[in-house]
Design goal:
Radius of gyration: 13 Å
Shape: globular
Strand content: over 45%
Largest sheet: 7 strands, mixed
Number of helices: 0
Helix content: under 10%
């Protein structure tokens, strides 16, 4: 059984920083591309970032580029999302996701991923 655990709900202030983590089990993590998505209230789930299995390539949505950093520790089966200079519009439930394919043309879409974490609420107050 594949599990992705991205624990907790967090409240921070605008301008703060926060690191999300997502630990996986049941996957060959070191050969699995990982992504982060988010879903704000009343909106569809949107792509945030992706990292290849080796960690050598990363991809970001424009709203988070230069503020967020995705990384991974294959020894810990964990993917991270470092979020800096948070804005109120970053408020959302954040989901980690796993893609069994090493390369995907659909990596900015939810259909490009096979497994999902349960989500972590991040609230950024002004």
């Amino acid at each position: 059984q594949v599990q992705l655990v991205d624990p907790g709900g967090v409240l921070v202030q605008a301008g703060d920083y926060l690191r999300l983590s997502c630990q996986t089990s049941g996957l060959t993590f070191s050969s699995t591309a990982m992504g982060w998505f988010r879903q704000a209230l009343g909106r569809t789930r949107e792509f945030v970032a992706r990292i290849t299995w080796s960690g050598t390539s990363t991809y970001y949505a424009d709203p988070v580029k230069d503020r967020f950093t995705i990384s991974r520790d294959n020894a810990k089966n964990t993917v991270y999302l470092q979020m800096n200079r948070l804005k109120t519009e970053d408020t959302a439930v954040y989901y980690c996701a796993a893609d069994r394919l090493p390369y995907s043309a659909d990596y900015t879409y939810t259909r490009g991923y096979d497994f999902w974490g349960q989500g972590t609420q991040v609230t950024v107050s002004s």
